[in-house]
Each structure stands twice: as C-alpha cells, then as structure tokens.
Amino acid sequence: MATYTYLTKDSTGNRHEGEIRADSLDVASRKLMENDQIIISLKEVDQSFDFLGPFLDEINLSFERWKNRVPLSNIVFFTRQLATMYSAGLTLERAIQGLANEERHPRFKKVLNQVGANIRKGLGLSEAFQRHPGVFSTLFVALTKAGEISGNLNDILEELAKYLENLDDTRRKVKSALTYPVVMVFFLMMMMLGMFVFIIPKFSNIYAELGAELPTATLMLVAVSQWVTANIGKIIFGSFIFTFFIWLISKTQNGGLFFDKIKLKSPVFGSLITQSILNKFCKTFGILLNAGVPVIEAMGLLRKVVGNRVYEEAVIQATDFIRDGFNISIALRRTEVFPSIMLQLAATGEETGELDSLLEHSANFYHKQVDALVERMTTLIEPLLIVAVGVIIGVMVVVTYLPVFYLGAAL
Fold first, then answer.
1. What's the pTM value of the predicted model, to 2 decimals?
2. What's the rounded Cα separation, in Å, for the pair 256 and 262?
3. How many domains does the chain have?
C-alpha cells in the first residue's frame, strides 16, 4: 500500500493538505472525491531509503536553532502580548512592530522586525513566522495558520500562549530535576581531575624523596595520576571528539531512536521524561483539535513536537492506522506505547465528542505527575549525591594520606 500527498479544496474554498494511503493513485483519488474534495494535486511519496537528506536537515535545523536561540519565556510573553493587542483592534503590523520596539533580546528583536517587514510585503502571519524555523516551531506556525483560516486568530494566540506557558513550566521543572545531578557529577569529575593532576603528584614526589614503601592502593592511585597527567591533552580532546560523535549519531534516525530508548528506560529519570512527553502530547493534541486542525494533519504535527524518537515512531504508526479507518484511541493503543489511562480518556472523548477537553484533562494529570516526580527526586537525589561525592573524595584523600600513617609507625 503506497502513501500519497494531496492538496484539495472543499466546497467552501478551504484548502486541505495531508497524506493518504491507498493501493493505487486511482483509489486514492476516489477516496478524496468521496468526501466532496476537489483534487488540486496528488503525488506518491517516494519510499526509497534516504539517509543523508534527513540527517543533513536535522543538522541544519539544530544549527539554525542554536544560531537564533531565543528563550521560551520571551516567545511566551510575545505571544500573549500579540493576542491581547490583536483582540484590542490593533493590526498585526502595528502590534508586531510595537512589540519589536520593546523587545530587549537582540536576536528576537531582529526576527520580529523581519516578521513585521514580511507582513508589510503582504505575507500572512503564519507565512512570516514560517521563515524563522529556528525561533517559531512547526506547531506555532500551524496553529497560527489555523487561526487565520478559521478567523479566530486572537483566541488561537491566547491558547497558544497558555500552551507555551505550560510547556515552559514543564521544561523548567524537568531541567531543575536534571541540572543538579549533572552539576554534581561535573563537580566530582573536576575535583578528581584536580587531585590527579595537581595534588597526588606532589605527595608522590615527597614519598619518593623519603624512600617510603607505598601501600598497594596508593601505588594504584599514583599510577592513575601519572597516566592522567601525561595524557591530559589527549583526554580533553578525546572527550570533545567523543561527545561530538555521539551528538552526530543522535541526529540519525536509528541513533536517535537508540538513545531515546535509553532515556526512557533509565531507572531514575525515565519516568520523568515519559510523563513530560505525555503531557506535551496530550496538551498539543487537544489544542490542535480544538483549533479545527484535521486529525491526520494534527498527527503529523505531533510527530514533530513530542521530542522523542520512540513516541515519534508510535505517532507515525498510529497515523497509518487512522488512515486505514481505525479510531484514534484504537490506533494509539495498537502502538503499545501510550498508557491505558490516557487511552481510556481518549476513547471516552471520542464517544462523547469531547476529545479535546479530555485530552486537556490528561495533560493536567501528567503535569501534576511531573510536579510530584520532580519534588520526590529533588528530595531523594540531592542527599544521595552529596554522600556519594563525599565518599569518593574521602576515599581518594585517605588513600593519598595512607603512607603518612606508615611513616609515623616506622618513626
């Protein structure tokens, strides 16, 4: 069964685009015409394997985001202010120009000036945003476009601001839970490196002058210190190359899938990452459906915002099941990735016609789960890490000073 991309127009003149699966081009066109769609274009998707293209696109997008990185809090404030100014009757051009003049972040100020200039040239708001993929995400552009088509742009912008605030809050909490362990591990590595390079060699020289017989543990520590001191440049360079190589692998499809599986299965942080992804998935899906975005298009956007290859593959599988005629909840269940609580709420939402509302409830549930996990992890991990760092440094200090006790006994 092949996949075809289509661009159609309905009886009211609205344009629709997406993908459809069918045995042939004729079958695909008949399916579209059965829904009273006028076909503008219908093309088969090339299913041949292309490794280099998606890999380079991923690298380019990463560099684009790094080059034009803007704090999410600035984008949240801009979106809310734009919604308020537009609902008050200001034109988009005046509102964006006013916000650009007040913006303090230099990169974001430049982007907003370019967006305002493109709107003056006649581009729509979503098209102007689309020219800055490193700042405005695919979801941001799609929701803006949905608001332009439906005529309720101010409501969509308000919902988008709430969504970004929720996303910013969740991301900040996840980062706060992950930052402390990373900082402590980095601090421990720097302390050990400092002892190996500066402190232990001085003690080993003193012991050599005194002609003391060193214990086995101290001899091993001195040997490691000598190796680290002799190869410090190679260690730093090798660490940089290894990190860069791992980053490149993570940008490939299979490599990213491998690392994302490890993240989800990690004993301490896997549950936190999973709850965060589910919160983002439910929140995004609910907003897209509430904005009137078709289900297939919404699934295509969800694939790009979940931020994990495991769930990305699951969304692709679910999209194929939906194209084949399955309900949303059944399609998600067949991927065997999504939890039963979310699937039950989705099934209830489909039966009652309130899927977007129940997805919002699911998002709130997972947001609370993230809060609880962060609080629990902060309470447990901080003292454990402090004890671990103290034990490791203490052992190194004791092993370093151990020959002093031997010398005292000999004297």
1. 0.68
2. 10
3. 3
